[in-house]
Write a structure and sequence with these properties.
seven-stranded parallel beta sheet, 10 helices
Length: 288
C-alpha cells in the first residue's frame, strides 16, 4: 500500500499557520487533504477558524502534541489511516508552542506514513522581538531549526534585515508568502537530511472562555485593549450585538473582523506563566 505523506505546519503563536492552511484548502490542487488541528486549550479555536472545516478536519485539544498529546495523536493518525479511501496527504497544524520535530517523529514511527517535511511559519514583523526575548528565543530557534522550509508571513513594511536575522538559524533562505499558490510550498517540500531532536518549552498560562454575548463591537474592543500585558496571544469568536466577531491578538496587535454567524463562540488566551497568571486573566475578563 502507498505510504501516506505527512507534513507538519509549525510556528509560534500568531504566526499565520491557520491562514496558510486556509489558503491551501481553498486552492484547486486536485488532492484530498486531511488536516489534523492541534490547539492549546479546551476550545479548539483553530479548527473553528478553518474555512473548510468538515469531515476532513480532526481536532486535537488540551495541550501541545510534544508534551501531552502523544497517545491521542497516534490514535488520530490511526483513524486517518483506517479511512477508505485514504486522503492523498495528511497535514498536522501544530499549536504555537509545540515543537514540530516531536510531531514529525510520528511519520518515522508509523510505517504507513512517509515524512513530507516541516514548514515553519514566521511572522516577519514579530520575529526580531521574539528572538530578543531570552525566555522565548530558544523555542523560536528550535521551531526554525527543525524546519525543512521557513515561510515568512506579514512582510508588509518589514525591513530586509529579517532574512539576515534568520540566516544563522536555518541553511535555506526563507520563502516570502506572497499572493501565489501555497500548495507547492506545503506539499512539495524537499526534506533536509540533518534532523534536530525535539526540545521542551517554558511554561505557559492557558485560559479559555465560552464567551457570553457582548453589547457591541466597541465594547469588545475596549475589553481587549485593557488586557493584561503578559498575554501574548488571544484568538476566537465572540457574538456581539453587531454580529459575530473574530478576534486575533498577537503581542500588541489586535484585529477584529466580522464573520458569518453559526460557529461556536469562545476565546483562548496564552502567555508565559511567569508573566501572567490565570487569576489575572480571569479577573480582567470578568471585570474584577
Amino acid at each position: 500500500m502507498t505510504r501516506l505523506p505527512l507534513s507538519v505546519v509549525g510556528g509560534y503563536l500568531g504566526a499565520g499557520k491557520t491562514t496558510l492552511i486556509n489558503r491551501l484548502l481553498s486552492e484547486d490542487h486536485g488532492l484530498r487533504l486531511m488536516v489534523l488541528v492541534n490547539d492549546f486549550g479546551a476550545i479548539n479555536i483553530d479548527a473553528a477558524l478553518l474555512a473548510s472545516a468538515d469531515e476532513d478536519t480532526i481536532a486535537l485539544t488540551n495541550g501541545c502534541v510534544c508534551c501531552t498529546m502523544g497517545a491521542d495523536l497516534f490514535m488520530a493518525v490511526g483513524d486517518v489511516l483506517d479511512r477508505a479511501p485514504r486522503p492523498d496527504h495528511l497535514i498536522i497544524e501544530a499549536s504555537g508552542i509545540a515543537d514540530p520535530a516531536a510531531i514529525a517523529n510520528v511519520a518515522r514511527a508509523e510505517p504507513e506514513l512517509s515524512y513530507a517535511g516541516i514548514v515553519t511559519v514566521v511572522d516577519a514583523g514579530q520575529i526580531g522581538g521574539l528572538l530578543g526575548d531570552a525566555q522565548i528565543a530558544p523555542q523560536i530557534r528550535q521551531q526554525i531549526g527543525v524546519a525543512d522550509l521557513v515561510v515568512l508571513t506579514k512582510t508588509e513594511g518589514v525591513p530586509g534585515e529579517v532574512a539576515d536575522l534568520l540566516a544563522p538559524l536555518h541553511p535555506r533562505a526563507p520563502v516570502l508568502l506572497g499572493g501565489g499558490r501555497v500548495a507547492p510550498l506545503l506539499l512539495d517540500v524537499v526534506p533536509m537530511g540533518q534532523r534536530v531532536m525535539p526540545s521542551g518549552h517554558p511554561a505557559y498560562t492557558s485560559w479559555h472562555c465560552a464567551c457570553p454575548q457582548m453589547r457591541d463591537r466597541a465594547a469588545l474592543q475596549d475589553k481587549l485593549e485593557g488586557r493584561p500585558g503578559g498575554i501574548w496571544r488571544i484568538k476566537g469568536l465572540v457574538q456581539t450585538g453587531d454580529g459575530m466577531i473574530e478576534v486575533q491578538v498577537v503581542g500588541a496587535n489586535c484585529e477584529l473582523r466580522a464573520v458569518a454567524g453559526g460557529q461556536a463562540r469562545g476565546l483562548v488566551a496564552l502567555g508565559l506563566a511567569d508573566r501572567v497568571t490565570l487569576a489575572e486573566i480571569e479577573g480582567w475578563w470578568s471585570g474584577t
